[in-house]
Amino acid sequence: MPTRRRFKQTRTLTQRLAEEAARLREEARTLAPGHRREMLLRRARQDETAMHIDAWLQSPGLRAPS
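Below the sequence we write its predicted structure tokens.
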């Protein structure tokens, strides 16, 4: 069985998602209204939603199911 190539992330998931969302919004800003622009904005919203979910999962108020 081949071994998987692994590496340590140097930035947190939240940082990576925030950078990608900002990059996608900036790219969408340069495009004319259309399908490609809508897809970029949709992906940026998905990244922001993922950031909120990650923050919720990392919050100290969560409890393990019993």
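Helices lie at 13-30, 35-58.
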